[in-house]
Structures are given as C-alpha cells and as structure tokens.
Amino acid sequence: MDNVVCLDDLEPLARAKLSQMAYDYLAGGAEDEWTLRENRAAFQRIQLLPRVLVNVTKRNLATTVLGTPVSLPVLVAPMAFHGLYHAEGELATARGAASAGTLLVASTASNVTLEQIAAEVDAPKWFQLYVYRDRERTRDLVQRAAAAGYRALCVTVDTPLVGRRERDVRNRFHLPDGLTFANFADAVPEHSSGSALNAYVASLWEPSFSWGDLAWLRSLSPLPLVLKGVLHPEDAGLAVEHGVAGLIVSNHGGRQLDTVPAPITILPRIAEVVDGRAELLLDGGVRRGTDVLKALALGARAVLVGRPVLWGLAVGGAEGVRATLELLRAELALALALAGVTDVHAVPRSLIF
Ligand SMILES: Cc1cc2nc3c(=O)[nH]c(=O)nc-3n(C[C@H](O)[C@H](O)[C@H](O)COP(=O)(O)O)c2cc1C
To answer: Which of 186, 193, 303, 324 could, after both became Cys, cross-link 312 (CB 3.0–4.6 A)?
Structure first.
C-alpha cells in the first residue's frame, strides 16, 4: 500500500487480485454505463472558489449522522458480497470502517450474517434493507437488525428489479462455491443464460413495494428510516411527508437506471425541497476530498463511498479499508484548509463557483 497515493491508485491493485467476474461486478454499471461515468464527470465539472486569510490551523471533520458520531463525513456504502473481494469479507470491512471511526452500512446481500457483522466490532452500524415479497422474511430481517443493534434502517428504493449490468450478463455472474446470501438459507440460482443475481432478485424481491407500504415498514421496528436511491425532487418531498429521517441521494453507483443524472447534480434541488426536514446524504463517484467538500457545500451532511472501499478490501483486508478512508480523510482535511473552511458543519454554498 506504500505506493498508494490516492483512491484511484487502489483500483488496478485490486483488479490484479480479482477474477474477471468479481472485478466486473464491482466496476460495472448498467447498460452503456453513461451514468457510471457521469458520476465522476459531474464532480469534475464543479469548480471550487476558495476563501483566504482564514485561520485554518484547526479543522473539525467530525460530525453526526442521525445522531451517531462519525470521525469524518464519509460512511461506507452498502455493498453486496464482500466475500468476493477478501476471505474475511464483511467482517474485515466492519473492522476497517470502525478503526477509521465511521459507519458501515451493511447490505442485506452480505456473505456473513448481519449478526456476525454486528458481533465483529462494537461500533455503530446501519442495516441496508432490500424488501422481499415474503413479508414475514422482511419483518424477520428488520427485527433481526434491530435486535443486533443496528442504528438505522436504510431501505434501497431504486432497485425494484436489478438494472441490466451487461458485464454480469456476459460473465454469467454467480456466487462462487462457498459464498451465499448468508442472511437466508436460499441459494442464488445457477443461471446459465445471464446474471444469476437478476434471476434471484426477480424471483424474491418485492417490485410492488411503494409509498403506502412505508408505514408498515416503520411499524416493524423503532429504527429510523433512511431511503437510499432518491433522485427526483418530488420523491424527496414525498419522503419527508412520509416521515423519513434521512435520504441518500444516489443512483446506485450507475448500476440501476442508466442515463440518470449524477447525484451531485441533483443534490441542490433536493436540498431545497427537503429544507432541513431530513438528513441528506449522497453517494456515487466520491473519490476525492474535494468531492466530499462539494457535496457538503451543496447540502449533504455526509457522503458514502462504495467501490474504493472494496478496492481497499481486496488489496489489504481491514487495513486496506482503513487506509482508503484515511486517504479521504487526509484529502478532505487539506481541501478544507485550502478552501478556508474550518468545520465540516460550516461549508458555505459560496464555495461552489
Ligand atoms: C459491488 C457493489 C455492490 C453493491 N451492492 C449494493 C447493495 O447490496 N445494496 C445497496 O443499496 N447498494 C448497493 N450498491 C450501491 C452502493 O451502495 C452505492 O450506491 C454506490 O456504490 C456508490 O457509488 P460509488 O461506488 O461510485 O462510490 C453496490 C455497489 C457496488 C459497487
């Protein structure tokens, strides 16, 4: 890891360790991957206009998300199947995130159980929920997450079906022997004509889940609800009316509907609608401290980072995850200083040119 200077340095190192199928599942997006590229391009189009002659000797990076303290405004996005990237899978990611003082959002689709992740480190975590057609199964999952001490329920709302990720179709993506959806007994079906993940999701997830079902979901546990995958400002308004505690402005890292805008582009409009009534988070294409700064300036309380964490996991296990987050921390601390800002809670909109 000594020659890793920025997050993008990790990707080729990770790639060299992975099968084509595992690498493509991580790297890919839906269809033409326009949104995948746009997530990066959108951050790069935004220019910062810094202030000078500010005493930046001390900067505060610590904040809270839904009341939980984090040492930097960067969380680990929920991602499926960490076992594809490291033998210790989600357990290593959990240790890495905890050692960097931030939250892991554990995916429904983990290769170890949510209880094992919770037991691995005594640090706050959130649980990401995919809603299953079988209501008892969904209820059970939510109640298990609450019992295991997860602090929030992050429901992914952009995935009634899985987007068409053509790399996975071509590779006939499937879980290698020994890896399962550990939270359940079902196996991912062997599927010879395309991605086995699509077949699993189409057979088990609930594509009819809609606004009217949120009250039921909330009744299952006392956990605050976060909706992940909101892009339309009108949906942000509806989410607030339905009493959600937080929103993650996200296009699932370009893996769902292709040709949608980058979250950072739509964030200002969503911030205007939400107007402080729910906490706003963002993910998609965050690779630099300056990206985090831009998101904060445009109304996010914190961001989540996805793929780079799995690059770090593949390269160095828990230590690699920690190192990935520490690189972002160092870049953000420097960006704050160079922009003349001393606190992540006070990043002015006027920093955006
Ligand atoms: C390999 C992989 C698996 C993912 N699995 C999930 C998942 O299980 N649940 C979910 O809500 N989002 C999932 N996502 C989306 C991430 O939570 C996040 O929205 C996205 O990766 C952020 O973009 P970035 O990778 O550019 O940082 C996954 C993303 C990747 C790359």
So the answer is: 324
What rounded mean pLDDT belongs to the chain? 96
Does 33 fall in a domain? yes
pLDDT (tens digit, 9 = 90+) per residue, 297-346?
Answer: 999 999 999 999 999 999 999 999 999 999 999 999 999 999 999 999 99
- State the distance from the centre of ligand 1 to the C-alpha of 307, rounded, in angstroms: 7
Which of 34, 79, 132 to probe ligand 1 with, by most ligand atoms within 8 A of CB?
Answer: 79
| Residues at CB less than 6 angstroms from ligand 1 | 25-26, 39, 77-80, 107, 109, 128, 156, 228, 250, 252-253, 255, 283-286, 305-307
The distance from CA 165 to its chain's CA centroid, rounded to whole angstroms, is 18
Number of folded domains in the chain? Answer: 1
CA–CA separation, 59 vs 344, rounded Å? 8
- Distances in whole angstroms, Cα of residue 125 to Cα of each of 68, 122, 232, 245, 331: 9, 9, 27, 16, 24
> Domain range spanning residue 302?
7-43+67-327
* 84 in any annotated domain: yes
* Atom number of ligand 1 nearest to Cα 154: 11
Q: How far apart are CA 43 and CA 46, in angstroms?
A: 5
Q: From the alpha carbon of 287, which atom of ligand 1 is closest?
A: 27
In a domain, 52, yes or no: no
CATH of the domain at 74: 3.20.20.70
How many other β-carbons are positioned within 10 Å of the β-carbon of residue 140?
15
Three-state SS at 191? coil
